[in-house]
Write a structure and sequence with these properties.
mainly alpha; rod-shaped
Length: 54
């Protein structure tokens, strides 16, 4: 391969690695948010159970 083609391959590799890291970071954020939403839902459920008239 000539030098120009090597630079193109390297550029594509850098873009793909960057895109992969971006997707992984978004997935981790979504998983953390889902856990927090589940926790908030449980806390709200417990709070509403505590406030029900007996």
């Amino acid at each position: 391969m000539d030098d120009g083609a090597q630079f193109v391959v390297a550029a594509y590799a850098v873009i793909w690695v960057g895109l992969l890291l971006y997707i992984v970071s978004i997935g981790l954020k979504l998983a953390r948010m889902a856990r927090e939403i589940e926790l908030i839902g449980r806390l709200v459920g417990e709070d509403s159970a505590d406030n029900t008239p007996s």
